Prior knowledge:
Layout: E1 2-6, H1 10-21, E2 25-29, H2 33-40, H3 51-61, E3 64-67, H4 71-75, E4 79-82, H5 97-109, E5 116-120, H6 128-139, E6 149-153, H7 163-168, E7 173-177, H8 186-195, H9 197-200, E8 206-210, H10 211-242, H11 246-254, H12 275-288, H13 294-318, E9 328-332, H14 347-357, E10 361-365, H15 381-384, E11 389-391, H16 395-399, E12 404-407, H17 419-425, E13 435-438, E14 452-455, H18 462-465
Parallel strand pairs: 1-2, 1-4, 2-3, 4-5, 5-6, 7-8, 9-10, 9-12, 10-11, 12-13, 13-14
Helix pairs in contact: 1-3, 5-6, 10-12, 10-13, 12-13, 13-14
Amino acid sequence: xxxxxxxxxxxxxxxxxxxxxxxxxxxxxxxxxxxxxxxxxxxxxxxxxxxxxxxxxxxxxxxxxxxxxxxxxxxxxxxxxxxxxxxxxxxxxxxxxxxxxxxxxxxxxxxxxxxxxxxxxxxxxxxxxxxxxxxxxxxxxxxxxxxxxxxxxxxxxxxxxxxxxxxxxxxxxxxxxxxxxxxxxxxxxxxxxxxxxxxxxxxxxxxxxxxxxxxxxxxxxxxxxxxxxxxxxxxxxxxxxxxxxxxxxxxxxxxxxxxxxxxxxxxxxxxxxxxxxxxxxxxxxxxxxxxxxxxxxxxxxxxxxxxxxxxxxxxxxxxxxxxxxxxxxxxxxxxxxxxxxxxxxxxxxxxxxxxxxxxxxxxxxxxxxxxxxxxxxxxxxxxxxxxxxxxxxxxxxxxxxxxxxxxxxxxxxxxxxxxxxxxxxxxxxxxxxxxxxxxxxxxxxxxxxxxxxxxxxxxxxxxxxxxx
Length: 468
């Protein structure tokens, strides 16, 4: 089977190499000149465990080809997967101009001589597929759905840090079609069965639905996960006020058969390229339709306050008669989660920006953002160029720079560090024990007895966090 994937970003690149793992020949089309040149050289700015090895292996075998032209790779393949980012960081959440441009190029390149399935992998607001199909009919009236092509909504559920595994071992596959009742077009169903035969053989559930249902399944799923994350963070705060153990509360809740333990973990907040954007987009879509999803308003507000509270907690522990400009904070972790170089809307970024604005000096260690790293372009310029900010080569080096040590990303390396050494490195602020703020609850007080250890949900009194 021959497949073309349009878009060499996160979703497109993962999809391309995984289809190669299925045994298919894949043409990966990237229209950005710099990214195209990197991909041709077997390089990518996307970090995902095993990704570079998969790219190299499949390019050497000839199963993966990279192109900067749409027409040729689209004209002679069985399926085209559109995986162009719907919006880039800093753009409005619902800016679909890049997607529509890529889709138009595909429309103009589709042949009449053969049937082609056009799959949309990009995460989009509800109603997008209907609009695209209308554009299809206007741009290429000579192509008939069900005969020459079908537009197929096929949203992905890839967790950053385990995306290759998630693609090859999904817990469901969503298929959206214009008409799926009583059954989808014969050609569409045959192609879907052929493309996803390896997953069908694994008995992965397939859900067929119309376009808006398929689009909403993804955005509703992510928004619900974000709601769980915000809820458990608020429970952590309540546990502090009443003297409860948040870890035991989570364990007790997760044993309820109606509540899944996955993603039911406390964190510094909701971040990344997908979750915050998806929640906002779903909320805004509802508003356009004349209704309010007030739960999602609460999730966004809760998440914003939670991240602000981290900065306030750090400042409250530094506050005394000295100027904040004399204080130093060590932070472990910039990415919003481990095993990714994604810093979009990362709580760590927000906290660092807040600290720098007060005059506090910040030393950062993250294994993917070491001095000289190729990932440094992802760090916001106002942080990277700030005179009070520095990147450190090791966790130990960063720890030696701070009055307080803050864990923001639960990198696996952290648990194996020598904490006797770290105890000696962290500044003994005003003669008290060094402070570790563990916003991932990676440790217990018993494991770090020498430190003033404050796990998530054990904030100082609220009055002390209200730093103006």
